Amino acid sequence: MVDFKKLSDCIDKKQKEFIERLRHAVEIPSVSAEADHRNDIFRMIDWTQHELESLGAKCEQIKNGKQEMPDGTVLDLPPVLFATLGNDKSKKTLCIYGHLDVQPAALSDGWDTDPFKLIEKDGKLFGRGSTDDKGPVMAWINAIQTLQEMKVEIPINIKFVLEGMEESGSVGLDDILIKHKDTFLSDVEFTCISDSYWLGKSKPCLAYGLRGLCYYCIEIAVCQQDLHSGVFGGTVHEGMSDLCWLMSQLIDADGTIKIEGINEQVAPVTDEEIELYKKIDFNIDDYRNDLKAHKLVSDDKVKILMNRWRFPSLSIHGIEGAFAGPGAKTVIPAKVIGKFSLRIVPNMEPKAVDKCVTDYLNKLWSQRKSPNQFKVYPTKGSRPWLADYKNPHYQAGAKAIETVFGTEPDYICEGGSIPVTLTFQELTQKNVMLLPIGACDDMAHSQNEKINITNYMDGTKVLAVYLMELGNCSS
Amino acid sequence: MVDFKKLSDCIDKKQKEFIERLRHAVEIPSVSAEADHRNDIFRMIDWTQHELESLGAKCEQIKNGKQEMPDGTVLDLPPVLFATLGNDKSKKTLCIYGHLDVQPAALSDGWDTDPFKLIEKDGKLFGRGSTDDKGPVMAWINAIQTLQEMKVEIPINIKFVLEGMEESGSVGLDDILIKHKDTFLSDVEFTCISDSYWLGKSKPCLAYGLRGLCYYCIEIAVCQQDLHSGVFGGTVHEGMSDLCWLMSQLIDADGTIKIEGINEQVAPVTDEEIELYKKIDFNIDDYRNDLKAHKLVSDDKVKILMNRWRFPSLSIHGIEGAFAGPGAKTVIPAKVIGKFSLRIVPNMEPKAVDKCVTDYLNKLWSQRKSPNQFKVYPTKGSRPWLADYKNPHYQAGAKAIETVFGTEPDYICEGGSIPVTLTFQELTQKNVMLLPIGACDDMAHSQNEKINITNYMDGTKVLAVYLMELGNCSS
Ligand SMILES: [Zn+2]
Ligand SMILES: [Zn+2]
Ligand SMILES: [Zn+2]
Ligand SMILES: [Zn+2]
């Protein structure tokens, strides 16, 4: 096993070089949502391939299809970058997933500095992608480079799957992974994803669960065209009135889901889980203050965390077809589409949830006795993901964290979905782990995204130790 | 009195010339909502001034102020055109209001022909402004021109108030009218506005009432920034849930307003009114079919017409701050603003309505026990307008219609508001009448706006006879 002190020193000495690497990555504005930047994604992938090849990796760009943009133009999808480092049959193989595209960003959105320059300030590195997900991808490269320069033998084979469309729905990725189930992915023993965040600002963690998502539309059609409320108000049954009533019946004032049959599908909470939740380092007042929310649904830490990860939640997102602008418009919308979704948890299955939701709304609708046309339908469903956090793979992650931070990680879940996690688990049938390196206040997807220099450097150390620990791992 | 047969023949002979006049007007794209066309409004006003001067009118362009557009650019507002024709102290003075600006229009919106060319097809004149409101303004000019060419003495003085911003909220008009209350408007005995439509396609009418409008916002603030439902769903009280519930309590499934104290403010319906409504030529099946509505709130003609004109109605227009686009977005909005309005009728006063609405919602909110921040406030209020349709002024309008069409007009109201109507009534303290010449299917504000050639020509005749009838009118 490599001496950690020596490893840590080597990494610290290279801080400037590692920051330059991230600077280079951030300066390529690889925004996947904007057609103008499509070429920058290709550039970002080429540049990353070059970095990986410098480590001796064998790279392959897997062609993806075409994408039709909302305005009708057709763009080439960026390829998925497959890289292989090491091909020793006696070693196990780790698959690392990351993404090279970023969310849109502009100074005019309220950034304090140019989002596509890496700005160092107060121990933080500001820039779009600094934490999501270019920082973690560069940290993997830093870790491997350091081990190589220390002439340490990495005890595993490493594969990378790096995509350029994550922030736009990972278009094409699942198809490519499915096609490579029996080739590139066939020998994968572990998958590790560093594309999430610590629960707080100081305590590292490992994540073993993600909620799934069931998204629904309720359509109410009144007539052919939008009507002027002055001319027609009082003569038609208005769709907004029906829709508001239906949506008011989804949850109680306290957030309890009123849809029959939903809560019954949730796996019972075990005592062991409660103990695990109790141990988690989480300050509920900080959480509320960060949100600037007036009050949370509970003051109890375990209840709030379980509400985020362990129980389903229902959110009403908005209405398509109604007036949504500023000011006053006196329209009676011809057709409105209410949108809401449920975050689902084990043992909920999207199909069973769909049935409860549509049955419930159909029943409400028949009570309403409105002459309007009504439709309710799911638009997408993804299952929750749950990994065995007692798997030796997690122990390797935990050991790496203990080595670097001197503390056990918290075992947490994420409330949102990272669909590729489930894809890797299902295709490899092996353990998948989420190993975040950024802090909870990194502002991914928001203005002034950053990664702390300490998180970037300690993250590089954790990843390096983790790679070494995997050698002792009998999954 | 002029011989109607002779007048009618004279007008018919000039059909080509009158259509050319309207063609010229339509070809000036005086769109008030679009900065690019601001200069066209000035051109349209200059051209109309020239037409009026050819009739011998004394014209004055009353300077209006500046307008800040949503993008921050500042535009000059077009002047209001005042014209005076005749100054005989022994005659009464009629004030005619009309507008020279139009709604936006483009081929790409779905027009079958260029909206800024007057296209004659199947007895219809298609073009933006053909019926709203260039057609009626040109019909006034046609009428006066014909009487002059027939060497008939017009028994009244005529004043015109023609504006260029009606389709953009009549910016500045009220101020200008108020300033001229004791000068230009001081001797006005009657005001006539031809800027609305028949109730159907064949029966002419006079309108004596307009509903007022009270518009409200309900604001619910949850936290500082929009939240991701995966990460935060289940921990905060969601604003959309509060808002949908509040808005579901505004009206019943059958459209009854649930806000306490509103229905009590409505003036009792008299037997005479019911008789007037019963006589109105209105086919409820045609109305429903034109809307392509699945069902109306009633199958009874009088009930439907009273719901449009004689009773208040409440419409929920939409929500600002929530997700309103196509597709699926998993946002928990930080702050949502629900928008709804009431159309109000005599004897409702905006202030009293505001109090009922805010009291009712405040009471609901205290029942809700939500920790979110709540606010309800009115954004605008306009009073209903009601004229005395037994006034001799209306008899002059009715006689003109009987002379041209051989039938009594229907006496109707409009459900929407034309705020300038109330301004004229309040400033002159004299009778105001709405005398439409276009048909209900003229598609003002929509694609393929038209006026039927018969409506344009018969309208010109009605206006000419009305001008003559006013001579016998002791208001
Ligand atoms: Zn990411
Ligand atoms: Zn992201
Ligand atoms: Zn108009
Ligand atoms: Zn109009």
From TrEMBL, chains A, B:
Keywords: Hydrolase, Manganese, Metal-binding, Metalloprotease, Protease. Its cofactor is Mn(2+). InterPro entries: ArgE/DapE_CS, CNDP/DUG1, Cyt/Met_Dipeptidase, Peptidase_M20, Peptidase_M20_dimer. Gene3D superfamilies: 3.30.70.360, Zn peptidases (3.40.630.10). Mn(2+) 1 binds at residues 132, 167, 445. Pfam families: M20_dimer (PF07687), Peptidase_M20 (PF01546). The keyword Transferase does not apply. The record marks 228 as: Important for catalytic activity. PROSITE patterns: ARGE_DAPE_CPG2_2. Binds 2 manganese ions per subunit. Mn(2+) 2 binds at residues 99, 132, 195. This is Peptidase M20 dimerisation domain-containing protein.
